[in-house]
Amino acid sequence: MAHIGSVVLKVDDPRRAAEFWSGALGYHLVNGPVGDESPVLAPEDGTGPSITLDETDRTHLDLHVSGEAELRAEVERLIGLGAERVPWTYPPGADFVVLADPEGNLFCVVDVGQG
């Protein structure tokens, strides 16, 4: 079953957002200096979802699964619960699927098991 792997926040200033959320939650930067395309903050103790800071994307949840088969099964399970596929232009080799919940909120199911 999928779990919340990351909360993607749309931000105007990644540096300011990183400083705030790091201080507010005790998170640390895990993928390079602030100012990267989408810096990621994670809990110091490694438990709980990360926060991805993105200047171009909408605020949404990334649900994580492990492996392509689990990705397909989880997408179908979520559709069975009322989610809908969203028309999306995927890059080659995409490891995620974009869905909308019954209220129209977008979220992604991401295969984090791919190497």
UniProtKB/TrEMBL annotation:
**Where does the record place the VOC domain?**
3-112
Q: Which InterPro entries match?
A: Glyas_Bleomycin-R_OHBP_Dase, Glyoxalase_6, VOC_core
Keywords, ordered alphabetically: Lyase
A molecular function (GO) held by this record is: lyase activity
Superkingdom: Bacteria
**Presence of keyword Lyase:** yes
UniProt cross-references to Pfam families, sorted A to Z: Glyoxalase_6 (PF18029)
Q: Which PANTHER family match?
A: CONSERVED PROTEIN, HYPOTHETICAL FUSION PROTEIN
The molecule here is called Putative enzyme related to lactoylglutathione lyase
Q: Which organism is it from?
A: Saccharothrix carnea
